[in-house]
Amino acid sequence: MNFKAILAAVAATAVMSGPVSAQDKSDWPESFTVGTASQGGTYFAYGSGWANYMAEKLGISGGAEITGGPMQNMALVHTGDLNFGLTTLGPARESMEGKSPLAPGMKMDNVCAMFPMYQTPFSITALSGSGIKTIDDIPDGATIGFGPAGSTSDTYFPKMMDTLGVKYERRNGSWSDLAGQLQDGLIDVVAFAAGIPIPAVSQLEVQTDINIIGMNEAQLKKVTDAFPVAAFTIPKTTYKSLEQPSQVVSMWNFAVANCDVSDDLVYQMVKLTMEHNDKMMSIHKAARSSVPENYSKNNVLPWHPGAARWFNENGYEIPADRIHP
User: In its keyword annotation, does this UniProt entry include Signal (predicted)?
Assistant: First the structure.
């Protein structure tokens, strides 16, 4: 083939590839929104940073929405009110089975997994001056802040406290609001469930002396036997207030999409997220676990076809029966 023929072939290829690219984007939304949770929590920091990153790289408008957290995100993504959201696998399972307190009986089965985020540790924070250093020190009738209504913490932490024999008064609110109430002496304890470091806890320990409370071996066994959680160690370096690693329990989080969102858009989003962990780490340190190897932690949600395409292309096998049709 002579030089002119080569040029003609290259030009023909370029012409052919243009419409394919345009067609791939024809079903993309003009903008997108990611359901996160309350301000002061890891979901909001992680989700808003990820939305900005996607919008910048993909050239479409996108942002985060403050929500009640995983349960509400499942509902909003299922109905299509939001394109994307962040959820924890425990609330995701309850929502898919029609057991969400937000919509009892509605099986939220139009929500698909995109990529693994991180583990949510369940940890307790109290003011040092309270004298509460262990779970057994929490006095009967103590007021405990469990985060936004319907959040992962609000869904599971009260049940965990019941299992451990703690008698308490329940308080809901955003993490930043509950941290302020703790500092002002209006509540006794905040039961946090969020990726670490939790912004509200980091801010608290700058402003006052706090105790970050873990579980002993007997408490760990009771909780892991009763709930879909696993033992987790909060490293000593996570917070200045920790004098040693803290033993707690945790639950996995995944980013999700409405199953009808463009396959190509989800593919591009997963590619940008999974292939650039350094960028994700700059958004939030919890993203150290936002790596493709952790795709196997999802044993609840069907995979979005666009996400499954990226994982299967890169050697992380997702069988056909785990992919949304």
Answer: yes
C-alpha–C-alpha distance, residues 163 and 314, integer Å: 42
pLDDT band at residue 6 under the 50/70/90 scheme? very low
Positions of CATH 3.40.190.10 in the chain:
30-119+253-322, 120-251
DSSP 98-143: T--TTSTT----SEEEEEEEEEEEEEEEEEGGGT--SGGGSPTTEE
| DSSP letters spanning 164-180 | TT--EEEE---HHHHHH
CA 253/CA 47 separation, integer angstroms: 12
pLDDT score, position 207: 97
pTM score, whole prediction? 0.80
> Do residues 123 and 248 lie in contact, with contact meaning Cβ atoms separated by under 8 Å?
yes
Q: Is 148 exposed, middle or buried (0-12, 13-18, 19+ CB in 10 A)?
A: buried
Tell the burial category of 171 from Cβ atoms under 10 Å away from its Cβ (0-12, 13-18, 19+): buried
**In DSSP terms, which residues pair with 187 in a beta bridge?**
none
How far is it, in rounded angstroms, from Cα 303 to Cα 95? 16
User: pLDDT for 107-150, tens place per residue?
Assistant: 999 999 999 999 999 999 999 999 999 999 999 999 999 998 88
Backbone angle region of 205, left / alpha / beta, with phi > 0 → left and psi within -120 to 50 → alpha:
alpha
pLDDT, tens digit (0-9, with 9 covering 90-100), for 259-297: 999 999 999 999 999 999 999 999 999 999 999 999 999
In CATH terms, the fold of domain 120-251 is D-Maltodextrin-Binding Protein; domain 2 (3.40.190)
Which are the contacts of 44, defined by CB distance < 8 A and separation ≥ 6? 36, 37, 38, 64, 66
CATH-assigned architecture of domain 30-119+253-322: 3-Layer(aba) Sandwich (3.40)
Handedness of CA 304, 46, 300, 155 (dihedral sign): negative
Kindly report the length of the chain.
325
What does the alpha-carbon distance between residue 112 and residue 259 come to, in Å, rounded to a whole number? 5
